[in-house]
Amino acid sequence: MTDITDTYFSNLISRLEELKQTLAQPMAQAAAVILDAARGDKRVYVFGTGHSHMLAEEVHYRAGGLAFTVPVLVGSAMLHEGAVISSVYERTQGLVRPMLERYGMQPGDVIIIASNSGVNAAPIEAADYAREIGAKVIAITSIAYSSAIANGRRRLADVADVVLDNGLPPGDAVIDLEGTGLRVGPVSTAVGVTVINAIFAEVASELSKSGDAPIYLSANMPGAAEINQKLVKKYRPRNPHL
To answer: Is 77 in contact with 100 (CB distance < 8 Å)?
Structure first.
């Protein structure tokens, strides 16, 4: 490895080791909230704008993943239809409600909202909408980042039922390029998918004790077609992306 590559790996591994301790309690709280929803045949939505939307795709129709997850995927708030304009959309008031209404979120459902900065309009409006209809809100965010830039604005962490602080610095990137004033090596996605997969693994473990864990198999595994087909048939009515 080069020094930079080694530094990035070491930084990320160190952060994950620390989060394993600091997030133990809030991750247990998040797992309990999701487990309660799953046992009530509710859904767990995952929402994020910009790069944070990748957490929603991470859990969708995923080998080893739970079938009651529903990604909130809106092109204008992602990157592939225009990265620059998506940055404008996520800061614009009033756009999220019509996006979420098509998903039919219900009381007792859960929404996981990922926003590293934690101050943009879209994730906060998503949290407000979910709480209005009686859904629980789990936030994955950086308290240090949102605290540094809030300037009196509401933060996602202030309106969530469970807050998972990823511990990342303002700006996300963690490696200083000497003599340039620039930083590289963003880690929010790697941290976010690790945290969310750990939580769902815990939920799946608990559900499996009663034989009620709706887990997808990789398409190339024996028996996958039949198992996955049954799960899709059951969960498609409330997941427009299946």
So the answer is: no
Per-residue pLDDT reduced to its tens digit, 152-181: 789 999 999 999 999 999 999 999 999 999
Query: 3-state class of 139 per DSSP?
Result: strand
Residue corresponding to tokens 């009033």: 94
Q: Render pLDDT for 88-105 as a digit per residue (tens, 0 to 9).
A: 566 567 778 888 999 999
Closest CA to 30 of 104, 113, 101, 107: 113
Cβ atoms of 134 and 108 closer than 8 Å? yes
User: What six digits make up the tokens of 40?
Assistant: 């009530």
**pLDDT greater than 70 at residue 142:** yes
> How far is C-alpha 60 from the chain's CA centre?
11
d(CA 128, CA 126): 5
For residue 212, what pLDDT is reported? 85
- Angstrom distance (rounded) from CA 239 to CA 70: 6
DSSP summary character for residue 168: P
